């Protein structure tokens, strides 16, 4: 029988709790749900008011992995949904606004991906992001070198950047900005990616052509487009182990000498949150927003 759990007055059916979702470590679906319940306090503010794209992997990363943007069938009526403009036409999408909605969504087994805008102003960016993606044999170590350059370059424009692991191979930089069109944010990010390539020609590249990327870090500026989404802070990823898109300190970035130094899994997060709190909390403070030049 599927257990029924009450979360903030909402009744949830949580299924297959013993199923192993991460074969490399034996991490189960029940442990996934526990992870999200215990990180909800820091995760929910980064999800709030942003339409969620789900990258689902209900049988683990070795099973079917697929994106869901529209409201999934069977979504409870109390889960917040809204019509969201999209290139192919408006669609109704989910908003994870509270703990009950988070646990319902986590039971689907999903990564959480969100855009750089909120529903009150679709297509008006309040975040700037860079997705630093290493081409083998480059690793997150090289991403850290590029990230440190970008941090200084953004600071020169009065924009304060923060870092998190992608939960995969790379690193994400994010900054809160005074609202600008997604087109303007994308243009600015591309300009800095081009500058990074000129300043670090053996290390950084701004072009998406895969044949150019081995041994270099692709500075993906395109994540700022209104239609694009980025892995939300603290989301688990569909990998062999339950890796997390984890906020990191700039000291950790500067000191990184091996990929293992910036690889974090679900059990790592409770002690990190105890030590650091939410390292990305400044992204939620509008008074710290920088203005695009």
From TrEMBL:
Q: Which GO terms describe its molecular function?
A: DNA ligase (ATP) activity
What's the domain of life for this entry?
Bacteria
According to the UniProt entry, what is the EC number of this protein? 6.5.1.1
Supply the Pfam families for this chain.
LigD_Prim-Pol
Class of enzymatic activity (EC top level): ligase
Keyword Transferase (UniProt): no
Which residues are in the DNA ligase D polymerase domain? 28-279
Alphabetically sorted, this entry's keywords are: Ligase
Key word Membrane present in the record?
Answer: no
Q: What is this protein called?
A: Non-homologous end-joining DNA ligase
């Amino acid at each position: 029988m599927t257990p029924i759990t009450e979360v903030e007055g909402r009744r949830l059916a949580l299924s297959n709790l013993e199923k192993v979702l991460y074969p490399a470590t034996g991490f189960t679906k029940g442990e996934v749900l526990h992870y999200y319940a215990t990180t909800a306090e820091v995760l929910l503010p980064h999800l709030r008011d942003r339409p969620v794209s789900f990258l689902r992997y209900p049988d683990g990363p070795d099973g079917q992995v697929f994106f869901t943007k529209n409201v999934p069938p069977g979504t409870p009526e109390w889960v917040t949904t809204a019509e969201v403009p999209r290139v192919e036409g408006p669609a109704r999408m989910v908003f994870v606004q509270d703990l009950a909605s988070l646990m319902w969504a986590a039971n689907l087994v999903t990564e959480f991906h969100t855009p750089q805008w909120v529903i009150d102003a679709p297509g008006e960016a309040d975040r700037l992001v860079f997705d630093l993606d290493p081409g083998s044999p480059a690793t997150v170590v090289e991403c850290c070198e590029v990230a440190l350059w970008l941090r200084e370059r953004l600071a020169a424009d009065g924009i304060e950047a923060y870092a998190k692991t992608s939960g995969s191979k790379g690193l994400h930089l994010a900054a809160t900005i005074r609202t600008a069109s997604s087109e303007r944010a994308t243009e600015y990010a591309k300009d800095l990616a081009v500058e990074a390539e000129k300043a670090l020609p053996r290390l950084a590249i701004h072009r998406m052509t895969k044949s150019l990327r081995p041994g270099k870090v692709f500075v993906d500026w395109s994540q700022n487009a209104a239609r694009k989404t980025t892995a939300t802070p603290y989301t688990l990823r569909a990998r062999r182990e339950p890796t997390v898109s984890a906020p990191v300190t700039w000291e950790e970035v500067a000191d990184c000498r091996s990929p293992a130094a910036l690889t974090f899994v679900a059990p790592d997060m409770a002690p990190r949150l105890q030590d650091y709190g939410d390292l990305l909390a400044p992204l939620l403070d509008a008074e710290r927003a920088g203005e695009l030049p």
